[in-house]
Specification:
The complex is a heterodimer.
Chain A (H helix, E strand, L loop, with lengths): L3 E6 L2 H12 L4 E5 L6 E5 L4 E6 L4 H6 L5 E5 H7 L3 H4 E6 L5 E8 L8 H15 L3 E5 L2 H10 L5 E5 L15 E6 L3 H5 L2 E12 L1 E6 L8 H11 L7
Parallel strand pairs in A: 1-4, 1-5, 8-9, 8-10
Antiparallel strand pairs in A: 2-3, 5-12, 6-12, 7-10, 7-11
Chain B lengths: L3 H17 L3 E2 L5 E3 H5 L4 H6 L2 E4 L3 E5 L4 H11 L4 E10 L12 E10 L4 H16 L5 E6 H9 L5 H9 L4 H11 L9 H5 L14 H16 L5 H12 L1 E3 L3 H6 L7 H16 L7 E4 L13 E6 L9 E5 L1 H7 L7 E6 L1 H10 L1
Parallel strand pairs in B: 1-5, 7-9
Antiparallel strand pairs in B: 2-4, 3-4, 5-6, 6-12, 7-10, 8-9, 10-11, 11-12
Helix pairs in contact in B: 1-15, 5-13, 7-8
The chains are: A alpha/beta, B alpha+beta.
């Protein structure tokens, strides 16, 4: 029998919270084998197979149709996939893994509160330094789309895969765009959020892949969706 | 989508027509130095260029368009006046999927560098394109960034505001927000008044931007706060100008009716262009004049702009072009030559041919 493949983050709090979310809906997900082995099992639902993956790989696996369903952050899906909603359907926000993708500037910049200020500073910075204002982030697409939509110019995106808050002090960027939940790391690094610098409010979300092979899986998907309390009509 | 070979043969046909019109063919490299050139493009092309690196020679990009390399070649060696044509691939990353979103496609183009008679050169390019595209029943639209720029330059307000508005003429969203701010329609940020009065956060100074740079900007903001708002009627006139759309034959009259004194010379230039187009038997009732045409798509065009579009809104423009005097000034490092040109996408044309 063919099965619905469900991709779930393979470790950490995101995995635990996902397991809890399914458990409260009568579906038990668990890792099997040793703690280091990425194998899993599903109890309480027919024809569903658990696939443990890195959260950052789940968008790509969904887009490729290699898994039917997947749990990951809505920020990752938007950043990694072009036209994400043509490729995936968001079945349910899951109420955890909250994080905001924001734009932050040095706290000492008294004259900068908004994107309008940032844009003006970017222009002056380019004139003075002969360099476009550098924005450090790993969310290239989301940041660029947001700034394009808002009509901000004279910036450049520099890639930062970690410790992004430190890039300003280390003189590798002037501004950052990163996810934050409490804002503590930002404060500790003397950064402040622009008042209109909220790019995306992310949370863990259950997605379905439009391009996955759903042939013959419809009845068991509808049953599974009903059990989870999500709308099967979205896909 | 048309096969590459079909697109190429359509492109060759157009290239021959450009050669027959007196252009000299140029073949810019596919790999262009990234650092210098990327800076000249707007955010749109810049973000979409495929950038790669050579271990010895540094960063290169796959040619995202021809105009900049053609201008560069002309500035290095060109005699005046000059006419150039080209045919080849350009490469652009696509953030969205769908028809007409090719990452590699051909452009065939024609560029005129001539300081004698700009109106005649504008008309020459447009009518050449119009003739080549006549049988495809496309809709032609023209505009003029020069009129918009003149209207902004003529505002009764401080030069820094005008400069900021001019900088964003290609980004309507930001332009509109700035205009609202300068007109006193939207309020300054909450903390602004305190900062202007001298309040500073207790935070260590970090980053490359210096405290002097901040002081300089705060001084400018203080001057700005003293400057009276842009008059509501001037904002209304600008809004009416940006929204203006009518057959080209009626454009001068419609523009005069807006009662914006500063655009009078630009309207006169538009009239000579329209006269030059009429002399080339262009039916100006069939060409649309759209004052905002080119605002959100065609950064580096700063005067006359035009496009030819198919009826299917999912298809990209079949042809676009315009005047880019300022670009020649930047690339010529002081030397400048009025330049106008445009490009046709033979792939889109081949699709239309196949469908016809």
């Amino acid at each position: 029998m063919s099965v619905i493949k469900l991709g779930v983050p393979s470790k950490g709090r995101l995995m635990e919270k996902t397991f809890e979310w399914f458990a409260t809906r009568g579906v038990t997900l668990k890792r099997t084998g040793s703690a280091r082995e990425y194998a899993g099992a599903v109890e309480g639902a027919e024809g569903v197979e658990l696939v443990l993956l890195s959260a950052s790989e789940i968008p790509r696996e969904l887009a490729a149709g290699r898994i039917h369903l997947g749990v990951t952050g809505s920020d990752l899906v938007r950043d990694k996939l072009a036209d994400w909603d043509r490729q995936l359907a968001a079945l349910a926000p899951m109420g955890f893994g909250h994080a905001d993708l924001i734009i932050a500037v040095p706290d000492c910049w008294a004259d900068v509160e908004t994107l309008e200020d940032l844009d003006a500073v970017a222009h002056a910075f380019r004139t003075t330094h002969g360099l476009r204002l550098r924005i450090a982030t790993k969310y290239h697409r989301l940041v660029r789309e947001y700034l394009t939509r808002e009509g901000v110019a004279d910036y450049q995106i520099v890639d930062s895969q970690g410790a992004t808050e430190g890039t300003v002090k280390n003189l590798t960027a002037e501004v950052i765009a990163d996810i934050t939940s409490s804002g503590e790391t930002l404060r500790a690094n003397h950064l402040k959020i622009l008042s209109d610098g909220m790019i995306h409010s992310s949370q863990a979300t259950l997605f379905a892949a439009r391009s996955a092979d759903w042939a013959g899986l419809r009845p068991q998907f509808e049953k599974f969706a009903a059990q989870l309390g999500v709308d099967a009509g979205a896909i | 989508m048309a096969l590459k070979s079909q697109a190429r043969s359509t492109g060759q046909r157009i290239l021959q027509a450009f050669l027959a019109a007196g252009a000299q063919e140029v073949q810019p490299d596919i790999l262009q130095p990234a650092e210098v050139l990327l800076d000249l493009y707007g955010e749109d092309i810049r973000a979409r260029a495929f950038v790669t690196a050579d271990p010895g020679q540094g960063e290169y990009m796959l040619r995202p368009d021809f105009t900049v390399p053609v201008v560069q070649a002309h500035m290095r060696t060109g005699a005046e006046p000059a006419r150039y044509c080209y045919l080849g691939e350009v490469f652009r990353k696509q953030d969205h999927s769908g028809a007409g979103r090719a990452i590699e496609y051909q452009q065939v183009g024609y560029e005129v560098f001539d300081r004698e008679d700009p109106a005649a050169a504008d008309a020459e390019v447009f009518s050449l394109f119009n003739g080549l595209l006549a049988r495809f029943a496309l809709s032609a639209t023209i505009g003029d960034m020069g009129i918009l720029r003149a209207a902004v330059e003529g505002l009764d307000t401080m030069p820094a505001r005008k400069a900021a508005l001019l900088r964003h003429i290609w980004r309507p969203v930001r332009f509109q927000k700035l205009l609202k701010r300068y007109a006193g329609i939207s309020a300054p940020p909450a903390g602004r008044a305190a900062v202007l009065a001298g309040a500073r956060p207790e935070a260590p100074w970090i980053g490359q931007r210096s405290a002097q740079e901040m002081d300089l900007r705060i001084k400018l903001l203080q001057e700005e706060a003293q400057c009276p708002p842009v008059a509501a009627e001037d904002v209304a006139r600008l809004d009416a100008l940006f929204a203006l759309s009518c057959p080209a034959a009626q454009a001068p009259e419609a523009l005069r009716a807006l009662d914006i004194a500063a655009i009078a010379p630009a309207i006169t230039r538009l009239e000579s262009r329209l006269a030059a187009l009429r002399a080339r038997r262009i039916d100006l009732d069939a060409v649309q004049f759209d004052a905002s045409h080119g605002r959100s798509t065609m950064e580096y065009y700063d005067g006359f702009v035009f496009s030819f579009a198919a009826a299917d809104p999912d298809l990209p423009f079949v042809a676009t072009g315009g005047r880019y005097d300022a670009l020649t000034r930047i690339l010529g490092q002081g030397a400048e030559i009025p330049a106008v040109g445009g490009m046709i996408r033979p792939g889109v044309l081949a699709d239309l041919e196949a469908g016809a």
